[in-house]
Amino acid sequence: MDERWKTNPGCVYNVSYHIIWCPKYRRKLLTGEVEIRLKELLTFKSEQNGWEIKKMEIMPDHVHVFIKATPSDSIAHIVSQLKGFTAYQLRSEFPHLKTRVPTLWTRSYYVETIGHISEKTITQYIQDQKNK
């Protein structure tokens, strides 16, 4: 079977999302050690939930994640897990974040479903974000 498809009992699937979210007030907080730790935390939480991050870029004022999930995980659950966990951990480990913003993330996010044909396009787009 093609590696882009995954299976579980009774289902063959390819569920992918491009998710973007920002720190509160779009402050440029995601640099240096915070950026490095955020990548580690997102990877950890994704693996813990059985999701696969295909591509990720942390910009100073927003996050891009291209993630593959299971059909039983709603996008709201995925975003809640990623944002909630990282906010708690980062604010605990980097006290200066508590003084800069009342909450680390805004309540909103952007999500787009990704089909097989556009995977390369999205991956290249996210990779090119650092070069702008």
Write the layout of secondary structure elements.
Elements: E1 6-8, E2 11-13, E3 15-21, H1 32-49, E4 52-59, E5 62-69, H2 75-93, H3 96-100, E6 110-113, H4 119-128
Antiparallel strand pairs: 1-2, 3-5, 3-6, 4-5
Helix pairs in contact: 1-2
Q: How would you sum up this structure, described in words?
A:
The chain has one domain (about 10-130): Transposase IS200-like (Alpha-Beta Plaits, 2-Layer Sandwich), CATH 3.30.70. It has helices spanning about 30-50, 75-95, 95-100, 120-130, and strands at about 5-10, 10-15, 15-20, 50-60, 60-70, 110-115. The model has no long low-confidence stretch (mean pLDDT about 90). The chain is built from four helices and six strands. It is globular, with a radius of gyration of 15 Å. It is α+β, with helices and mostly antiparallel strands. The longest helix is centred in the middle third of the chain and has 19 residues, at about 75-95. Helix 1 (about 30-50) packs across helix 2. The chain has a four-stranded antiparallel β-sheet with strand order 4-5-3-6, with helices on both faces. A two-stranded antiparallel sheet has the order 1-2. The protein is about 40% helix and about 25% strand.
